Each structure stands twice: as structure tokens, then as C-alpha cells.
Amino acid sequence: MLSPTTTGNDMDSLHQVMQLLQTLDNGLVLLDADYNVQMWNSFMENHSGIAISDARGKNLFDLFPDLPKTWLRRKIDSAFSLQSRAFCTWEEHPRLFNFKSTRPLTGRSAMMYQNITLIPLTGLNGAINSVCLLVYDVTEIATRKQDLESANKTLQKISRTDKLTGLYNRGYWEECLEQEFKRCQRSKRPSALILFDIDHFKTFNDTHGHTAGDEVLRAVARAIKETQRSTDISGRYGGEEFGLVLPETTQSQAMLVAERLRETIAAATVEWDSTTLQVTVSIGVAEYSDSLKDHQNWLEVSDKALYRAKEDGRNCTKVPE
Ligand SMILES: Nc1nc2c(ncn2[C@@H]2O[C@H](COP(=O)(O)OP(=O)(O)OP(=O)(O)O)[C@@H](O)[C@H]2O)c(=O)[nH]1
């Protein structure tokens, strides 16, 4: 209510303020303590399809039955009782009102993302008599952030992946091995490392060509993926050298895995230029032990076992001496 001393100038100002609020590019809802709508602006009218004349005096939760009632009532109640502003970002709740995006065709989201601010408002007597709900359309910001996050994820994947085989590349695989080493140091749980290398691959490349060699590397990677468990971590360690970290696996269990892998690779065939190509691998297996200095040391021990397999005629699996 306006005071009895309200002048024509005051009325003009009020009228102008009301026009301004109508043209705001944000939603504005004024609620009383019983969650009844006192007024809302044209943003709310346009997006909800409900005219202010139909909304005034109605309960907000009757107008929008899909609002998160318990959560929003708590927010509104505390704005009244604590007399302080409250915020909610799209990252916590993508939206309060299920409004469609204003750019469903050019934008990436069919629905509007919203930030919400709740502001307690005092009447002329100084007491809080309503709460203003401000709704900001942040669809552009939200979708851009999501696009950026998804591009970062893709970049991260690319930076970790070996292009030829699709396995982890050496850098990332070694990082995983280092993590596993530290985990074993803390937990004292078993873990095993398998390193293996294609036999006579130089001769193979010289005989069949580098492209045929690449095809074989892909076939070996497929064999690893078929053999490994989801918790195992495989990577291309070097040109024709591969690594497999087997968490929660003892040496004897890892030997079984390694032998199965060796046999799978030996049995795999690659058809190339009307020729059936096959390769074998030599494998070194080393279990984690407290005597290892670091993950590099673990690699060295596995590499020695792999060297023994080469020395022993290749196409076999060895453990450290
Ligand atoms: N086709 C292909 N060959 C590669 C790739 N990376 C490394 N190589 C080849 O792998 C061969 C490795 O040869 P060596 O290290 O001498 O070992 P090897 O001939 O396999 O002999 P042993 O390991 O002792 O059995 C080299 O000829 C490399 O060129 C690759 O991405 N594609």
C-alpha cells in the first residue's frame, strides 16, 4: 500500500519501476510467507504461459507442481527467518522452473539452465513481508561450460592414448604403475606387473613391411583387451613392448594370466596380402615386493624377467631369478 502522503511523482516513479521490472531479462517472482504469488514479470509470463492476472494470489506450488517443494520451501522459509539472501546455481540444480530454452534450435540444450537468488524484502513497516525469487537464464554459460568440460575430457583421453593400438600410452601407463606401486606400499596388498615384447619383430617388419607390423601391433592390443580384467591396466610401453598392471594379483596368478595372454597372441592370425601372419611374445612377470625402491625398480625387475624369456628361446613366460 502507498502511504497517504504519496504524490503524483511517487506514482510516476513506481509506474516506471514496474515497467522496468516487466522488461527485465530475468524472471522475477514476489511471494508471501505462504508461498502465494504477489506478482511476477513478463519473463515469467512468457516462459510459463501463465499471465500475472492468473497467477496473482495462487500458491506457487499449485502453479508448478513439479517444483522441488521441500527444498524450495526450506530456502524460502530461511530467507524469511534469517533475513538473508540465498543462492542456488545451475551446477547444484540445473533449473528450478522447467522452462524451455529460448534457443532450442541453435543452442545445445532443449531446457533452460537457471541460477536462482532469493531476496527477503521488507514492507514500509520494516518487517519482512515477501521474498523475491530472481531467475537468471544461464543456458549459454552452462552449455559452454559443459562443452568445455567435454572437450577437456576428449583431450585428456587423446593425451593418454596410444594412437595405433588404443591402449594407454607409455606416459600415462607409467603414471598408473606409479600409483599402483604407492597403493601397494600403503596397503601391502599383492599386485603384479607383466612386461612383454613381440619376438623377432624387426625381422617381421623387414619381411612383411611396416604396415603389416602395425596391423600385428593392433592384433596384440586386441588380445590384451580380451584377456585383461576391467581393473587391469594395459599400455604400450615401447614400439613392440607392452605392459599390464594386475592389481590384487599374486605372482602365480599373474603367471596364469601371462600364459593365457601368450597363447592367445600365438594363436591370433592377421590376414595380410593373402598371407596369414602370426607372432609370438616373450613375457616377464614380477610381483610387487617391499624390497622394490620405486616403480622404476619394479619395471627393471620385470624387464630382467622378460630378458630371461628372450634368452630362454622366446615365446615363453619367466619370473625374476
Ligand atoms: N610396424 C611397427 N614396428 C615397430 C613399431 N615400433 C617399433 N617397431 C619395430 O620393432 C622392432 C623391434 O626390434 P628389436 O628391438 O630389435 O627386437 P626384435 O626384432 O623384436 O627382437 P627380439 O625382441 O629380441 O625378439 C624394430 O624393428 C622397430 O622398428 C611400430 O609402431 N610399428
From TrEMBL:
NCBIfam families: GGDEF (TIGR00254). It catalyses: 2 GTP = 3',3'-c-di-GMP + 2 diphosphate. The lineage of its organism: Bacteria, Pseudomonadati, Pseudomonadota, Gammaproteobacteria, Pseudomonadales. Its EC number is 2.7.7.65. Residues 13-83 form the PAS domain. It is an enzyme of class 2 (transferase). Signal peptide: none annotated. One of its GO terms (cellular component) is plasma membrane. Residues 189-321 form the GGDEF domain. This is diguanylate cyclase. GO terms for molecular function: diguanylate cyclase activity. InterPro entries: Diguanylate_Cyclase, GGDEF_dom, Nucleotide_cyclase, PAS, PAS-like_dom_sf, PAS_fold, Rev_trsase/Diguanyl_cyclase. CDD domains: GGDEF. Pfam families: GGDEF, PAS. GO terms for biological process: cell adhesion involved in single-species biofilm formation; negative regulation of bacterial-type flagellum-dependent cell motility; regulation of DNA-templated transcription. Its cofactor is Mg(2+).
